[in-house]
Amino acid sequence: MFRFIITATLVTLLSACTMQVYKLNIQQGNIVTQDMLDQLKPGMSKTQIAYIMGNPVLNDTFSIRQWDYIYRTERREDEISKYHIRVNFDQEYRYTHFEGSLPVSTDPVLQTKDDQPVKAFEKN
Fold it and tell me: Which of 96, 100, 102 is nearest to 40 (CA)?
């Protein structure tokens, strides 16, 4: 009886070690598209830039002449894509240029075949 209890306890503990926790897909930051960047024209005000691009993720309190748009996508432990766009302004707080580049596709494909929900009943 004592062996049975020890064996059952060990099997239970070892089976708990093999279980995996489901991790969600994570998107963080501002989504910036090439269309947004194409709309930016030198001399635009900060309000106009915010209307097109949205509010930046990072507001540097020491340098108010640049805005940083950062985006990062993760699927479980894997980092799929990330980019950093810096919008620069002149001394009169008018848009001058941006730095950085977008990945080939800014629409990340987060779901894989394993992530799709299972259909219980399928109509033909």
Answer: 96
What are 50-91's pLDDT values in tens digits? 999 998 887 777 878 899 988 888 777 676 778 889 999 999
Give φ, ψ of 94 to 5 degrees.
Answer: -110, 145
Closest CA to 32 of 86, 112, 95: 86
115 vs 106: CA distance, rounded Å: 20
- Domains of the chain are 22-103 (3.30.1450)
Q: How far apart are CA 75 and CA 85, in angstroms?
A: 22
Q: Residues for the chain: how many in total?
A: 124
